[in-house]
């Protein structure tokens, strides 16, 4: 029991227990016991009581039955509403996850596109360390540099185009 009303499901029961730290249990009074007492069965009084049949149920019985039916119907309606709410929440969560994934993908694409090209340090070092003729010769005269380049060109072999 959750207060004055029966608990709809286990989740509601746990919520109520966590708030109030008390739990009420409803016992079923209509429960039939499997063990029977033979003495009571064989009594004449019991047989006569069983033979007395009520022809018309009283109004109290009818009203109690109607109330029970209404309570059961209300419980079923509450269960349906809770299920519908849970389904909506699940759908909303899934949609939010999809939106977050799409936003993350778009952000990653933008980040990849917006990265500027930064040359690596190795290429800049090679360029700066290149063979500088002026560093070999003490005087950087154009005529001396031209003669050095010609000598290096004579030493080099021509490329073999026919070779694969």
Determine the fraction of residues in helical runs and give it as a percent range.
55-70%
Mean pLDDT, to the nearest integer, reads 76
Which geometry do the CA atoms define?
Answer: rod-shaped
The low-pLDDT segments are none
Enumerate how many helices there are, as a single number: 7
Structural class: mainly alpha
SSE succession = HHHHHHH
Extended strand count? 0
Task: Characterize the quaternary organization of these chains.
Answer: single chain
| Rg, nearest Å | 48 Å
> Into which percentage range does the β-strand content fall?
under 5%
Q: Which sheet architecture does the biggest sheet show? A: none
Distance between the termini: 90 Å
Question: Topology of this structure?
Answer:
Layout: H1 10-20, H2 38-42, H3 44-51, H4 59-114, H5 121-128, H6 133-136, H7 142-155
């Amino acid at each position: 029991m959750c207060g004055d009303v029966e608990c709809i499901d286990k989740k509601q029961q746990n919520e109520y227990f966590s708030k109030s730290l008390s739990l009420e249990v409803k016992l079923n009074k209509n429960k039939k016991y499997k063990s029977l007492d033979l003495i009571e069965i064989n009594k004449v009084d019991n047989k006569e009581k069983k033979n007395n049949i009520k022809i018309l149920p009283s109004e109290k019985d009818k009203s109690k039955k109607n109330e029970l039916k209404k309570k059961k119907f209300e419980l079923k309606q509450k269960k349906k509403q809770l299920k519908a709410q849970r389904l909506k929440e699940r759908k909303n969560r899934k949609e939010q996850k999809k939106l977050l994934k799409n936003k993350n993908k778009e952000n990653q694409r933008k980040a990849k596109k917006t990265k500027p090209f930064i040359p690596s340090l190795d290429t800049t070092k090679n360029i700066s360390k290149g063979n500088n003729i002026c560093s070999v010769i003490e005087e950087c005269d154009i005529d001396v540099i031209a003669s050095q380049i010609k000598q290096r060109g004579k030493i080099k072999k021509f490329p073999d185009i026919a070779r694969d």
